[in-house]
Design brief:
Layout (H helix, E strand, L loop, with lengths): L12 E5 L6 H9 L20 H5 L2 E4 L12 H12 L3 H14 L15 H15 L3 E5 L7 H14 L4 E5 L11 E6 L2 E6 L1 H6 L1 H6 L6 H8 L10 H18 L1
Parallel strand pairs: 1-4, 1-5, 2-3, 3-4
Antiparallel strand pairs: 5-6
The structure holds adenosine-5'-triphosphate (ATP) and magnesium ion.
The site of adenosine-5'-triphosphate has 10 residues, from helix 1.
């Protein structure tokens, strides 16, 4: 990774996109100290993650791209509690937070299941619950919805919306439509920061999208083709309403 210079402020919601092999997961590993930068400097709330991993990991929690690697405990509930145990959180508080996190990811009833028997999406939910239970100040999510069904994806995105402002969030994804409300989007390609832009800017820059192997999501693409503002319209329903309103205005003008 080279030529990546960026700063994230407290409370920001940052999207991270870019092609396969672009460097997104590498950035994630640099931030939690799994990788050491061979040149340059990484600081998380003043700490060097590779030299002071424990200081950093209490504040910055990561959901890794491959949830299999993170699941270690015999039962789902122990796995979700794992991070809290390391932090020495008191028993009753721990039980409360574990139950809440399990319910947030839609896994109530799975507490005594063995993680290795779960489906891919279920494992991804367990890993996310473990992160949410710790309630870190900074959440770094590497493709958190990649294995989830449509409703699961929506639930996770809604929960991120709830955390927004309260937490600092870095959200890596290949789904641009998940980032339309982000404060900024970082584009990583070839281990470099290709762009650091607003969602509006990225969606309106066809060249930037193409160079980084992205395509405009369907709703903004349709809005654009209909001559409407692509970034103001998020859902098919919003787009339909805008089209109906425009037709009504045109009819009135006639
Ligand atoms: N341990 C490693 N040793 C050598 N090269 C590595 C290592 N880990 C990653 N790379 C290389 O670094 C580049 C960036 O990888 P990274 O995992 O950060 O990509 P990514 O943007 O997360 O991609 P994806 O969208 O596929 O998850 C890739 O070319 C990858 O092969
Ligand atoms: Mg990756």
């Amino acid at each position: 990774m080279d030529g990546v210079s960026l700063e994230v402020r407290v409370g920001e919601y940052i999207g991270v996109v870019g092609p396969n092999g672009g460097g997104k997961s590498t950035l994630v590993r640099l931030l939690n100290g799994l990788l050491r930068a061979d040149s340059g400097r990484v600081r998380v709330m003043g700490f060097d993650p590779s030299a002071q991993p424990f200081e950093v990991r209490g504040k910055l929690g990561v959901l890794f791209q491959n949830p299999e690697n993170g699941l270690v405990a015999p039962f789902v509930e122990d796995d979700v509690a794992f991070g809290l145990e390391n932090l020495g959180v008191e028993r009753t508080e721990m039980r409360r937070r574990v139950a809440e996190a399990i319910s947030t990811v839609g896994l109530s009833g799975y507490e005594r299941r063995e993680p290795h028997t779960l489906s891919g999406g279920e494992k991804q939910r367990v890993a996310l619950a473990g992160l949410l239970a710790v309630e870190p100040e900074i959440l770094v999510l590497d493709e958190p919805t990649s294995m989830l069904d449509a409703s699961g994806r929506r639930e996770v995105l809604e929960h991120l919306g709830v955390l927004r402002g309260e937490k600092t969030i870095l959200h890596v994804t290949h789904h641009l439509e998940e980032l339309l409300d982000a404060d900024r989007i970082l584009v990583l390609n070839g281990g470099r920061l290709a762009a650091d832009v607003t969602p509006e800017r990225l969606l309106s820059d066809t060249e930037l999208l193409r160079e980084n192997r992205m395509i405009l999501p369907t709703v903004p693409r349709l809005a654009f083709a209909l001559g409407l503002l692509p970034t103001k319209l998020r859902t098919p329903e919003e787009l339909a309403r805008a089209v109906r309103e425009r037709a009504a205005n045109e009819a009135r003008a006639r």
